[in-house]
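Changelog-adjacent note: as of this version, every example in the card shows the full chain rather than a window. The one below runs 584 residues end to end.
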Amino acid sequence: LLTGLLCSAVALAAHPGDGHREIEVMLPMRDGIELHTLIFLPRDEGDNKTYTAIVDRSPYGYGDMEWLTDIFLPFGFVAVGQDLRGTEKSQGEWSMWQSDKNDSVDLGEWIVSQEWSNGQIMTLGASADGIASLQTIVYDPEWLKAQYIIWAPSDMYNIIMPYGDYKQETTEDWLMGLTMPDPDVVYDNIQTVYDNEARTDYWDGIAGSPERYANVKFPTAFWAGWYDLFVVGTLDAFNGYNTMSDESVRYTSKITVDAMGHCLDGDGFFTENGKGRTLMVLGQMFETYGIRPVSRNEIKNITFYVMSSNDEAGAAAGQFWTSVEEWPKAKMTDLYLTGAGVASSSPDSGDAEFTSYVVDPPADPAVTNGGNNLPPDIGGSIHCGPDDQSAIDSRDDVLTFDTPVMTEDLYLTGALMATLFVSSDAIDTDFMVKISDLYPTGEAILIQDNGIRMRWREGGLTPVYMEKDQVYEVTFSLWNTSWVIPAGHALRVSVQSSNNPRFSVNPQNGILLADPAYPGDNVTATNKIYHSAQYPSRVTLPVVNKHQLPKVHILKEMQKAYPELTLEMAQKFHDGLMGHLKKK
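Full-length structure tokens:
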């Protein structure tokens, strides 16, 4: 039945284009829903030649696929693009990637049945396309031979609802921007998110797992960005593919982490980030797809940008690329919050057990300024990147804790963590923590941040509300970074209870998103951060030393490894990728 459905696809158009043949089909899936699919065949097709297919499945449409065809067709690949179910020209209803484990297999089975196919398929996907690509491994298709994943997370719940704190504007603005045959489906999607505010099994359908990662039996590589809204999920996917894959490919996956990812707003801040970056990932892609084996010289499996401040001190200490075989082993180092507003290497020994502040988020939320957001020029609505927090830090409902000025450079690479002891007189509230680089001139440049919605602190299927003035310990990730606090600067920890529109405003009344009464009446709360020997609130930093981060000139290394790759080719790929994503 499946073969019959797949082979019944009707070609809508076939024309020579610029020397290659293009086929456009409405391809039936196993349930009869037809998905719009474009196939681009190489110029030398015919005479019983067969080819490997590079597949990109996307919700953004394929008005311009030259950025794919110009790169891959000359190397003897077929390029295939497919509109995801319920988007652009495809039938059906968009299901937030839930259907892609089936649809990707149905497309793959059709491809390998074609006379031009050699039975091998490799996938490419950036952002939403990458999330779809990650679903392809679920059923362990034997034709899947390589994957390159760009800026895409393994787990959507941790992106949309990290620690229960809803990224409402990013989620809903992005969904509203999709082109759907039935526009009303977007409201069903939003309601689905509300109905699954807890981490229900709904999210398991689009989450990585050891069982899925065991199906990875082929070359893989990833591209992430430190200020990307998906960075923690892309790093998790890389970890799964690299350490939980089939033994034949375990510890061979590769990753490039630039400074920005989706966050195009802040690219000018990092002076060396763009030099060779796209050539680096394009060469990495060629290696993954087996286009040309290479002696990789100074380029190892893990290549990332080491960020720092955009002044002379930062340029001297950081702002360079490094490449290593494994992540540097960090010394996890605690900085304790104290009543004197100092971030100290020792717990507070003073008399003040806590610091309190009054929060009324719906009336006057702290406004987001930068961070790991989806910006307006690429489908979102929130400015992103390394922005100054000093004005926000001056608010009465924001607490700040600064280290002494650094006498030597402080190198950080890895996961940042926060452990807070807190209480409130409301049944629910949020706590957010920011880590910033504090300049001698007073700017506080955001490095990373995250938050927790207290009703979901236990992570179960039902909310657990707070009791008045009871002290709770909460630990949560502030995601990952590689940053150097240079000598002459300090590190700042900021604690607050709103960060809007990055996170939805919490009315602090405990009403759930799916409740018809939401958001309900606002509750003004007095929140407390405890800092004592008994309640040592702190952040934990991944401290490394400079020798663990060898400086590498990636542009020279890639030009040496791939002389046929030109800067013009890299720029075309970069511009095409950005243009594809900027459609939404």
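Structural remarks: The CA atoms of residues 95 and 189 lie 7 Å apart.
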